[in-house]
Amino acid sequence: MNNKQDIGIMICIITGDIVGSRKIKDTWLSSLKAALKIVSLKNSKWEIYRGDSFQVEVRPEDAIKATAYIKACIRTNKPADVRMGIGIGSIKSKNKRLTEASGDAFIYSGFAFDGLKQAKVNLAIKTSSADFDEEINVLFKLSLIAMDSWGIVAAEMVKYALENENILQSELAAISGRTQSSVSEALKRAHYTEILEMDKLYRKKLNQTELK
């Protein structure tokens, strides 16, 4: 990989770990690997380390959908759950190993992740804009009321819905092997429509905010 490639542009780094991984079966591991491949757009910009921790690079505008998708994939292995810190910023050095690269995006992501336990939340964001962070983190706290309560079926339907965003619920039912009414009810329980609304607002705020 060319070390000069992409340096100076804004990237998004998600740092996360699996909650209580030592107490649950390893079924979450294959789910995590598959999720990271998809959210990184299959460009291999992801890494799992220390057994249950990970980092992945995604496009800044995709941060909400990426974290929601990872969350859904892990929650299909209940009681497994995931904590994630999002950092958006520049990149200074590019290495083959994501965890050896450097720049503000990595610093911010680590800062957001390190503050999760103290804040008692499973998702947070850090950028160069305190105002942007404050607004988005309030949205996260509200969204987690729903997301932290996803059961296996609700998580599974969110996963399918994010994988197939432009299809009808009847088609989702066919893919999932469930009835259309059960798909509709599961997405309603998951507050999927509200999460898409949050994603839309996040993208709007991101475009309006000048990050350094």
What is shown here, in short?
The chain has 212 residues and is of the alpha+beta class.
How would you spell out the order of helices and strands?
Answer: EHEEHEHHEHHHHH
What distance separates the N and C termini? 25 Å
Give me the Rg, rounded. Answer: 17 Å
Number of helices: 9
Top keywords for this entry?
212 residues; alpha+beta; five-stranded mixed beta sheet; 9 helices; 50% helix; 15% strand; SatD family protein
Question: What can you see in these coordinates?
Answer:
By secondary structure, this protein is α+β, with helices and mostly antiparallel strands. The protein is 50% helix and 15% strand. The protein contains 9 helices and 5 strands. It has helices at residues 27-39, 63-75, 104-114, 116-119, 130-147, 152-163, 169-176, 180-189, 192-208, and strands spanning 11-19, 46-49, 53-58, 81-89, 123-126. It has a 5-stranded mixed beta sheet, with helices on both faces. α2 (63-75) runs antiparallel to α9 and α5 packs antiparallel against α9 (192-208). It is globular, with a radius of gyration of 17 Å. 41% of the residues are buried. Residues 1-5 have low confidence and may be disordered. Pfam families: SatD. InterPro entries: SatD (IPR032580). It comes from Pedobacter punctiformis. This is SatD family protein.
Indicate the topology:
Blueprint: E1 11-19, H1 27-39, E2 46-49, E3 53-58, H2 63-75, E4 81-89, H3 104-114, H4 116-119, E5 123-126, H5 130-147, H6 152-163, H7 169-176, H8 180-189, H9 192-208
Parallel strand pairs: 4-5
Antiparallel strand pairs: 1-3, 1-4, 2-3
Helix pairs in contact: 1-2, 2-6, 2-9, 5-9, 6-8, 7-8
Protein name: SatD family protein
Pfam family, one: SatD
